[in-house]
Amino acid sequence: MVTRLTAWMVLALGIAVSVSLILGVSVPLANAKEEFTIRFGGGGPVDHPISQGQIAFKKYAEELSGGRLKVEVYHASQLGGIVDMFENVKLGTLTMSHAGTPFVSRVAPLFELVSLPFLFDKRERALAFVDEPTGGMMSSELEKAGLKAIAWFELGFRHITNSNEAAGSHPGGHEGAEDPPTGKPA
């Protein structure tokens, strides 16, 4: 089960702003007696909130495991872009990364649900949506692809803008606009 975390809890755990963190299902962390190294890739610079979350995650994971876990954090796309890191987690060459819904939905289409425009009018409703049962269904679909969501958190609200006129605040107010650069149609 994926747990919805409030913003302060996310930061306390060292996991910051994105939609999902991915961990390869085959990682033997439960009841592990041996030492294990987690390779945690990220796309932002060291001072970005996600990177700061990765650094905090490293600190807490190493402390709470009594030294059994070693966390190597790679910032600023050192291991490739988000798509590359997502693929490397699927292949098992990278233990952990974060990826937004445009990338996760390529292997688990139900994740596209949280990308629908104008679906939520309040943050609380969006967070409630990814709680059980919907979040569980989405996570189950991801596990079928060999990945595991370990947390949900937001990237913030998105806006539809253009240089010609006000985009409006209603569905359908963006006819003729180009698709976003995520490779997913608007």
User: What's the CATH topology label?
Assistant: D-Maltodextrin-Binding Protein, domain 2
Q: What is the number of E strands?
A: 5
Rounded to the nearest angstrom, the radius of gyration is 17 Å
Order of helices and strands: HEEHEHEHHHE
Features:
disordered N terminus; 186 residues; 6 helices; five-stranded mixed beta sheet; alpha/beta; D-Maltodextrin-Binding Protein, domain 2; single chain
Write up what this structure looks like.
The protein contains 6 helices and 5 strands, in the order αββαβαβαααβ. The chain has helices spanning 7-13, 49-64, 82-91, 101-104, 123-129, 134-144; strands at residues 20-24, 36-41, 69-74, 96-99, 147-152. The chain has a 5-stranded mixed sheet with strand order 3-2-4-1-5, with helices on both faces. The longest helix is centred in the first third of the chain and has 16 residues, at 49-64. It is globular. The protein starts with 6 loop residues before the first helix and ends in a 34-residue tail after the last strand.
What can be said about this structure in brief?
The chain is α/β, with parallel strands linked by helices and 186 residues long.
Topology:
Elements: H1 7-13, E1 20-24, E2 36-41, H2 49-64, E3 69-74, H3 82-91, E4 96-99, H4 101-104, H5 123-129, H6 134-144, E5 147-152
Parallel strand pairs: 2-3, 2-4
Antiparallel strand pairs: 1-4, 1-5
